[in-house]
């Protein structure tokens, strides 16, 4: 049984086992977390499918509410609305954009650094390079690392993102539309990228050498301040999931493959493409600064910000 002791100062220090805080001033009854399977977020899948998170919080009398929100920008919006407490997997591009917009989203841990897992994909054999996308139609989630990848890829060829028609849609929607011939290119990641390739599409370019994707775990600012013990417990279970994955790799891959609807071989490829972690490193802050400069230059950000503004102090490297 995990016991969490909160010190409350009311003239004298009174110890009590609780998840209380200034935001609610009563014991925490539920925690709302995002469940993000894609691109191949194996620790999240393991935490949920093995009941690790539910069990840990149930021992404290807290119910876990899972919300399937794949987009980092939509997770940030849910946090701003107070309906999401923990963003289990968000890209730093979305976090920076949310912070610049005034949303209090805090990075509390690293999650992965998956360069090979993000790509621009096409089912049109005549599109073999980024220049071939000029005047074409592409689809994918805006305000994400994939959006940043598209802008960086266009810029690398002396083009601007305005030189094509970029439509907002989810990753699954973009893949479906591309394979049906309604889009010339789609911004894809993870298992959906693998599935699109298996259906005859090809990779035009990956993130490697263009952007440095960083996936992180985030918390709503008010929730972090009011319920730090709940955040600590979530991160503890994340670390336990990572350790279980390493000790039981084949079983973990089988669980991930079943949840994603892909083969075990494809799951293994995605696992190798994804570098999971439980912390930030100094290089993450440096590449985030590079990302900020790039987003300012390309109109994705309208004002300067700093990585430290959206990172909880205990998560800084």
Automatic annotation (TrEMBL):
Residues spanning the signal sequence: 1-20
Classification via Pfam families: NMT1
InterPro entries named in the record: SsuA/THI5 (IPR015168)
The protein's name: Aliphatic sulfonate ABC transporter
Transmembrane segments: none
Keywords: Signal
Occurrences of domain SsuA/THI5-like (ranges): 57-252
Keyword DNA repair: no
Keyword Aminoacyl-tRNA synthetase attributed: no
């Amino acid at each position: 049984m995990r016991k969490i002791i909160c010190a409350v100062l009311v003239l004298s220090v009174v110890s009590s086992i609780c998840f209380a805080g200034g935001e609610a001033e009563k014991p925490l009854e539920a925690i709302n977390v995002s469940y993000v399977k894609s691109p191949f977020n194996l620790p999240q899948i393991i935490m949920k499918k093995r009941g690790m998170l539910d069990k840990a919080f149930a021992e404290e009398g807290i119910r876990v509410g899972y919300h399937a929100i794949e987009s980092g920008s939509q997770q940030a919006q849910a946090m701003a609305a107070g309906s999401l407490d923990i963003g289990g997997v968000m890209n730093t591009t979305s976090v920076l954009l949310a912070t610049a917009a005034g949303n209090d989203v805090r990075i509390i841990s690293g999650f992965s650094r998956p360069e090979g897992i993000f790509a621009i994909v096409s089912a049109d054999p005549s599109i073999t390079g980024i220049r071939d996308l000029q005047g074409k139609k592409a689809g994918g989630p805006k305000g994400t690392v994939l959006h940043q990848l598209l802008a960086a890829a266009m810029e690398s060829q002396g083009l601007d993102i305005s030189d094509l028609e970029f439509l907002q849609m989810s990753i699954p929607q973009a893949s479906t539309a591309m394979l049906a011939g309604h889009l010339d290119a789609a911004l894809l990641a993870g298992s959906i990228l693998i599935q699109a390739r298996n259906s005859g599409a090809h990779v035009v370019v990956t993130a490697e050498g263009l952007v440095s994707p960083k996936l992180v775990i985030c918390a709503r600012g008010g929730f972090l301040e009011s319920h730090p013990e709940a955040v600590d417990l979530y991160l503890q279970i994340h670390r336990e999931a990572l350790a279980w994955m390493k000790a039981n790799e084949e079983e973990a891959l089988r669980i991930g493959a079943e949840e994603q609807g892909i083969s075990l071989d494809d799951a293994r490829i995605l696992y190798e493409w994804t570098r999971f972690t439980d912390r930030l490193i100094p290089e993450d802050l440096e590449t985030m600064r590079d990302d900020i400069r790039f987003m300012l230059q390309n109109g994705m950000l309208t004002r300067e910000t700093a990585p430290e503004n959206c990172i909880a102090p205990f998560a800084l490297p």
